[in-house]
Structure to design on (434 residues):
């Protein structure tokens, strides 16, 4: 008798497991069809029925291939239930999916992304992803998801570490590279580490995109490094040519464009720039873009002509003030300063170019009686920057922003040439520049 019972156990157990799995698959298919018909509440009930059919099943007794299949279906149910706004049941389905296949990194990643998009309970998601990574240490996808969760939770360094780990696991993952590029803006140390990792991939296109991104973000010093890393790259020379055109250095720009076309006669940017130069050469100076005409005059030292062009174009007195100041015509700048509503602040901005100590004394006296003048704090920050007082520069800028969030313009930002705290300063530029 006992032998018969043991024999029955051996033959019926697999059939029992198969019956449960078949019942689950059938319930899932039914729920999916009901959901497609738009019957959301009924679909949720049927999805719950499908989950309940697995509740008492020992996952270890299910063949591995079947476990992976069940896990995939459960992740699909989890995602669907999130869309149907049943978060609690979605979590139950997710936990069951992990039970059947803890190594299903794609399923975990998909579920994590869904919750990230909803912005829900990221602290719990952080814990869950850490546990998932312990069982899937080679998953770059889970590292990316964890990095994004860290980012949402304000853990910047942890996020950088997670993204770097993901890139080490999969150097050819373009999504990770893009995330790191965006995340590293203004952070020289992180950018350097990112570029080192990126260079190991040998992916010239992505390396080029990274350098161009940094240069466009204002890291102009990266241009020379990029040209060394990627010699004879026409697009880098195109950036240089555009800069020369913007500065009004047309002859130098022409020479640079010739270099581009000698490297690649079919270069789209090179040919476009050549056509642009030809257009500039074919029209009279009076018809050329106003910014270009002014730049050309300043570069030639013809500040008076630059001011005259600006006057005829109807530029504001403040714009002309900065043209004169940047061109070194301090007398004309001082003359204009007297016409502004806070002439002392503008006068001290000019004075800082020739006598920074005197400018500081005058500004301190002015600010003592004009503490609510945001431009006065901007000028104080510029003077502090000239004197190498980085803490003062930062504090005075913060004061200006508190008084008037839109006070700072690119004209002022460009003057902080010695600023060392690039992380903070780049965040400031993002805040105030379009």
């Amino acid at each position: 008798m006992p032998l018969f019972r043991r024999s029955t156990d051996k033959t019926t157990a697999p059939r029992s497991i198969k019956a449960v799995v078949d019942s689950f698959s059938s319930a899932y298919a039914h729920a999916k069809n009901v959901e497609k018909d738009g019957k959301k509440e009924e679909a949720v009930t049927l999805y719950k029925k499908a989950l309940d059919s697995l509740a008492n099943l020992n996952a270890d007794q299910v063949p591995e291939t079947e476990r992976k299949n069940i896990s995939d279906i459960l992740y699909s149910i989890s995602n669907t239930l999130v869309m149907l706004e049943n978060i609690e049941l979605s979590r139950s389905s997710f936990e069951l999916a992990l039970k059947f296949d803890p190594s299903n990194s794609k399923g975990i990643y998909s579920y994590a992304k869904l919750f990230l998009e909803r912005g829900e309970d990221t602290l719990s998601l952080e814990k869950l992803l850490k546990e998932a990574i312990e069982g899937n240490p080679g998953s770059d996808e889970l590292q990316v998801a964890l990095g994004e969760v860290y980012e949402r939770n304000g853990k910047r360094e942890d996020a950088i570490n997670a993204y770097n780990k993901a890139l080490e696991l999969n150097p050819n993952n373009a999504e990770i590279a893009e995330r790191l590029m965006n995340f590293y803006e203004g952070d020289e140390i992180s950018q350097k580490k990112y570029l080192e990792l990126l260079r190991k991939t040998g992916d010239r296109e992505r390396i080029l995109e990274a350098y161009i991104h940094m240069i466009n973000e204002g890291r102009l010093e990266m241009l020379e490094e990029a040209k060394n890393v990627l010699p004879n790259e026409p697009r880098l020379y195109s950036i240089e040519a555009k800069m020369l055109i913007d500065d009004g250095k047309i002859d130098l720009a022409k020479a640079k464009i010739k270099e581009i076309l000698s490297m690649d006669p079919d270069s789209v940017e090179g040919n476009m720039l050549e056509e642009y130069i030809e257009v500039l050469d074919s029209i009279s100076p009076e018809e050329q873009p106003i910014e270009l005409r002014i730049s050309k005059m300043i570069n030639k030292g013809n500040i008076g002509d630059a001011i005259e062009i600006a006057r005829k174009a109807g530029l504001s007195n403040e714009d002309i003030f900065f043209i004169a100041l940047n061109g070194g015509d301090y007398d004309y700048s001082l003359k204009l300063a007297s016409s502004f509503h806070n002439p002392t602040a503008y006068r001290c901005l000019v004075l800082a170019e020739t006598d920074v100590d005197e400018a500081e004394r005058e500004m301190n006296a002015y600010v003592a009686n004009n503490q609510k003048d945001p431009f006065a704090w901007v000028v104080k920050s510029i003077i502090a920057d000239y004197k190498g007082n980085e803490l003062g520069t930062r504090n005075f800028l913060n004061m200006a922003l508190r008084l008037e969030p839109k006070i700072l313009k690119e004209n002022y930002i460009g003057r902080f040439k010695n600023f060392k705290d690039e992380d903070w300063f780049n965040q400031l530029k993002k805040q105030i520049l379009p």
About this structure: Residues 320-419+427-432 form a domain with the Serine Threonine Protein Phosphatase 5, Tetratricopeptide repeat fold (CATH 1.25.40). Residues 294 and 306 are 5 Å apart (CA to CA).
